[in-house]
Amino acid sequence: MPRSADGTVRVPHTKMETDYEESPVFGSFIIAVSYVLVFLTFPVSLFFCFKVVKEYERAVIFRLGRLRSGGAKGPGLFFTLPYVDNFRCIGLRTGVHDITPQEILTKDSVTIRVDAIVFYQVSNPLAAVCQNKDYNNSTKVLAGTMLRTVLGTRSLSEILADREAIAANLLENLEIATDQWGVHVEKVEIKDVKLPKQMQRVMAAEAEATREARSKVIHAEGEQRSVVALKQAADMLSSSPVSLKLRYLQEMNNIAAEKNHTIIFPLPTELMEGLRRRFGGSVEKE
């Protein structure tokens, strides 16, 4: 269908329409009568003719059902004819809207419940009024449908791990779909992914088993490193007898600093070996 400069669809006239709809004469007569009524009821009519549009709003005006030229009006004061002009104010501020919670079956056959929000604003008031009956409801319904479509092609692990990528994909698709309605989608966020209680228990058990296995691996690696370190220390001490004696004296000093009532003196194995040989030699002589 042909479109005008403001983005509205112009439906061509059919033969079933009457002649006065194609001719501006009848409409001009009604407009002239409205001006006369405004003049006769002056100054009371001023309260009904002048409207105020706020800074964050725009007014889309229709005269006898046709969109007035000049695009959306505002902000400020504008003039309307009673019973001839009607208008609709469209807010331009960004709003946050909750998407209806969706029950979704994922790619790996897991049923989840997803809550999401969408941020959008009107970028073209004329298209928002003329191209869609209710752009707010349409955007929310479309966002919910696209959310089901996108998440239905992902597995549960992908949904839980790639929320940002999924939100970016939803944003791109919504921006393309709502552009013709004059709506600009700024952001889509997945608030919560609710799992069935049985699935929550299974995932908790799996996570606990994974953590336990990881802790055992870490403990085994620590034991392995400690054995290597002890072996290196033993090799270094065995290569220097003086170092072994100094280590012995250092441990004795640490024990004495703790004010213990009982102190155990370890005897070097060399001393025990010497005593064993001496007593063994004396026994053989006898």
Summarize the model shown.
The chain has about 290 residues and is α+β, with helices and mostly antiparallel strands. It has helices at about 20, 25-40, 45-50, 125-130, 135-150, 155-160, 165-180, 195-240, 240-255, 270-285; strands at about 50-55, 55-65, 65, 75-80, 85-90, 95-105, 110-120, 185-195.
Q: Could you characterize the architecture of this molecule?
A:
- This protein is of the alpha+beta class and 286 residues long.
- It is built from ten helices and eight strands.
Structural class: alpha+beta
Rounded to the nearest angstrom, the distance between the terminal CA atoms is 129 Å
- Number of beta strands: 8
Shape descriptor reads: rod-shaped
Q: What does the main sheet amount to?
A: 3 strands, antiparallel
SSE sequence, one letter per element: HHHEEEEEEEHHHHEHHH
Q: Helix fraction?
A: 40-55%
Supply Rg. Answer: 43 Å
Strand content: 15-25%
Query: Uncertain spans, ≥5 residues at pLDDT below 50?
Result: 1-22
Helix tally? Answer: 10
The main sheet orders its strands as 3-2-5
Average pLDDT value?
79
